[in-house]
Amino acid sequence: METSDKKDYLRIGLIQTSIDQDLAWDLVENTQINMSLTEELRVWSEIKKGISYLKSEPENNHPHIVILPELTVPLSKEYELQKIASKIGAVIIAGLDFSENNESVENKAVVIIPKLWPKTPSYGIARKFYFGKTFFSYSENNFFNKKNRVGKPWPAMYILDAGAYGTIGVAICSDFFDIERFMIYKGRIQHMLVIAYNKDVKSYYFLAEAISRLVYCNVAICNTGYYGGSMVFSPHSDDYKRYIYKHEGGKLFATQIVNLPVKSLYDEQKSDSEIDENKTFKAKPPGYKFKDF
Fold this sequence. Notes:
Blueprint: E1 9-16, H1 21-24, H2 37-56, E2 65-73, H3 78-88, E3 91-96, E4 99-101, E5 104-106, E6 108-113, E7 127-132, H4 138-146, E8 150-151, E9 159-161, E10 167-172, H5 179-185, E11 191-196, H6 201-216, E12 218-223, E13 230-233, H7 239-242, E14 243-247, E15 254-261, H8 263-270
Parallel strand pairs: 1-2, 2-3, 5-8, 10-11, 11-12
Antiparallel strand pairs: 1-15, 3-6, 4-5, 6-7, 9-10, 12-13, 13-14
C-alpha cells in the first residue's frame, strides 16, 4: 500500500454545553430572537470551563480542532472566541446563536483558524468563515413564525482541507439527514463533523454508524448536553473500536478529547485491494471511489 504523508490522528476536543432552550429562547409571541442574557452568561461560563480543561492538558494531547454544539455561542462572544482560538492554537468550529437580517434568520456556525495552525501557540488574529444550516427543523420554523420571521437556508456545502490531518465535511443538526450531502462527500472526506441541538439522540447513533459505513469516514457529533448524545464513530473492523466516544444522559456539561484515525483510514480509502484478513477498517461500501484533492 502506498504510504501517505498524513498524520496518524486528528485530535478533536468536544465541549458539550447544556443550554435549556426554554430558558434561552422566549417561545411566546414577541420580537426577541436571540438567547436570554441569563443563558448567555451561563453557557459562556461553560465554554470557558471547557477551554480551560483543554488548555490544561499536556501539549501532546492538545486538540487540533475544538467543536461546540449548534446555537451555543452568543453573538457578543464571537470575537472573544477568535482570541481563544489563537491562544490555544486550535481550530474552533462552533454553532452561533441565531443571526437576523431584516425579517430572515440564519442558523450558522463559525470556523475559526489560528494564523499559524497547526503550530502552537498561534499569534495574531485568527481567520474565520461561516457555514450555515440548509434544512430547518419543524420546531425552528414554528419559532420563526411566532416571531414573524422566516428561516434563510444556507445553500452551500463545504469540504475543509486540513492538510496532513485529512479532509472534513460539516453539517448542522438536521442537515445530517440530507442524503445529497453524502453523495458529494462520499470518497472525498476522512471526517464528518456535526454540531447539533437535537432531542432525537438515538436516531443520531444509528445514522452515524450508517453514514460512517456508506461515506466511509469518521463521524463526530457534538450535541447539546441538555439532551446528551454526543458521539464519535469510526468504521473499524473490530466492533469494540468503532465507538470511540459516546456520551449519554441529559442536562450534562462535558468536555472530552478523542483521536480520529487519519493516515490508516486515508490509505485504506485509497487502496484498490479488498482482500486482506488483517484489515483495520470495514470493507468499502459498494461503488466507493476515492477522490483526492
